[in-house]
Amino acid sequence: MNFLRRVFPIAGLVMIAASLSGCNILIPDVAADSPARFVQETSPVFYQPPGVDPRRVRPIPDQPVPQTRELYKTQFHQTYGLPVTNPVHAAMYGELRDEDFTLPSIPVSRVQPQFLRQEVDYQTTERPGTVVVDTKARFLYFVEAGGKAMRYGVGLGRDGYAWSGRGVVQWKQKWPRWTPPAEMVSRQPDVRAFSAENGGMNPGLQNPLGARAMYIFKDGQDTLYRIHGTPDWQSIGKATSSGCVRMLNQDVVDLYDRLPAKAEIVVM
What we know:
The chain contains five helices and 13 strands. By secondary structure, the chain is α+β, with helices and mostly antiparallel strands.
């Protein structure tokens, strides 16, 4: 009995060693340290089409590295792969439902960036709530506290039809009716159908006063000049009208909501 207890463990070890002999775990792989084998196993494999001699293939010349990235030259200095328009502007000038009308979106990518609505630093002696129109730069500033102002791009009247000075926005109106003054009717007979005696033009998307109008008075008298919206967004930054201050419809809605009653206005 003692003899069997001694024999069986030894026989088991012999059988296990025999079964593992095929794995060569007891024999070191000395070829793994061979540099030639290492190069053979790790060398890259290149695609060689049949019939093509790689020694006769002309290499592609090195391309110069660009020193500046101006693939999309915008006010945001964006580069390839990034949007070329500011998503904030897209939201500000998107389609807008306003009372009974829907203002169409404005293609902001076709408007010069400086004429889009933006808050800027603006040092002035004018009180907050005052409107300042810079006719040379074609900007309208709504003065805010803390040396800031909301700046809008505007279109202005042609030389000879412009007005300048200090006045008051006597009253303002949503979706106004357009009634051209008698002087305009005499110069442009085609607008006679909208004269005062004919009741003017109904409010709407094609109305020259747009979505809002703010009427400028001086010394209690109507100057006949207005701050108003316009459906002609391409006129912003230009001088083509009969003297009024034109704004993008989305901008004039924004200004209308900010403007206090009887706000002062300076046109210079």
